[in-house]
Amino acid sequence: MATATPNGSYAVQEWKTLTPATQIWNAYITKEALTQLSSDAKWILFAASIAGADELVTWQSCALDMGMATLYATEDPYATDISPELQLAAVAFAAVEAGYSDISIDASGLIEDWGTADISLFVSMMLTDAV
After folding, report:
1. Across the strands, what pairs with 129?
2. Which of the pair, 13 or 65, is modelled with greater confidence?
3. 44 three-state secondary structure
4. Which residues pair with residue 82 across a beta bridge?
5. Which among 30, 46, 123, 131 counts the fewest CB atoms within 10 Å?
6. Per-residue pLDDT tens for 67-114?
């Protein structure tokens, strides 16, 4: 399968530099998000903060533009579907937690406080090929 960014996006290149040598970058970034959002209470607060964010439509449209789709829950009665915008926000959150400087500098504080420019910068860095 060919990739649109053969050298990795700017975000991927940055994440690779932050990843400990004993881990792979995508596992590391996922672990960073899950470590902070692992309890039910934290996940519920995070999901509610994104759902109530002023820029919810931006999170939604950027996630859909990236081709993200809803992750459907299992048959577990307590599992919940994870919307594309919530997935994108969780990745952004993990990137900030991991110290990804290009976005944490522009973010005004909490992830739900990001404006359109912050979200767009993050998505652009994820999609732009590093030369």
Report:
1. 9
2. 65
3. helix
4. 71
5. 131
6. 999 988 777 766 678 899 998 998 888 777 777 755 654 445 577 778
pLDDT tens digits, one per residue of 4-22: 555 667 777 877 888 889 9
Q: Residue 45 to residues 11, 38, 71: CA-CA distances in angstroms?
A: 26, 11, 19
* 3-class secondary-structure state, position 82: strand
Cα angle 70-89-44, degrees, rounded to a multiple of 5: 80
C-alpha–C-alpha distance, residues 97 and 14, integer Å: 13
Amino acid identity, residue 97?
E
- The structure tokens 């607060």 sit at 45
Specify the pLDDT at position 131. Answer: 52
Report the distance separating Cα 27 and Cα 67, nearest Å. Answer: 20
Structure confidence at residue 93 (pLDDT): 83
Kindly tell me if the per-residue pLDDT of 1 is higher than 60: no
Instruction: In whole angstroms, give the CA distance from residue 125 to residue 9.
Output: 7
CB distance 72 to 130 below 8 Å? no
Q: Looking up tokens 């009665």, which residue turns up?
A: 77
